[in-house]
Design brief:
Helix content: 40-55%
Number of domains: 1
Number of helices: 2
Strand order of the largest sheet: 1-2-3-4-5
Shape: elongated
Distance between the termini: 27 Å
Radius of gyration: 17 Å
Structural class: alpha+beta
Largest sheet: 5 strands, antiparallel
């Protein structure tokens, strides 16, 4: 879909269950890859497999990550996952932001500020 999509708060919230489902799978693959990579560095062996499995996991992760920009969602952090939905509030360019582990979409920040400028969404 590209960089041009702007989300309404309701649109972003409606997409959140799918985001959370995909993030749960991503978190599991991220943990497996992290563990496998560390085991292979330390002892060249892991219960999770070897180099071939590590490469396959990395490819799977890359493929899983592609879904977000295809929807117009920006991936801003990997561990923890931080995603932004481009939006406009009161004529100002903002990002509706969601951090891994949050149960709902309740935060935004101006597009030029990043997460340091994060504020709670006003009631709709």
């Amino acid at each position: 879909m590209g960089d041009s999509r702007l989300f309404g708060v309701d649109d972003a919230r409606a997409l959140l269950p799918e985001v959370r489902r995909r993030v749960a799978a991503l978190v599991e693959a991220r943990a497996d890859l992290s563990e496998l990579s560390m085991d292979l560095r330390r002892s060249r062996a892991s219960a999770l497999g070897g180099l071939a499995e590590a490469k396959a996991l990395q490819a799977r992760l890359d493929e899983m990550l592609e879904w977000f920009p295809e929807q117009g969602i920006e991936l801003k952090g990997f561990a923890p996952l931080l995603i932004d939905f481009p939006a406009e509030l009161d004529g100002v360019s903002v990002r509706l932001c969601w951090l891994e582990g949050e149960s709902s979409l309740e935060w935004y920040h101006r597009s030029d500020l990043g997460i340091a400028g994060r504020r709670r969404l006003p009631p709709i």
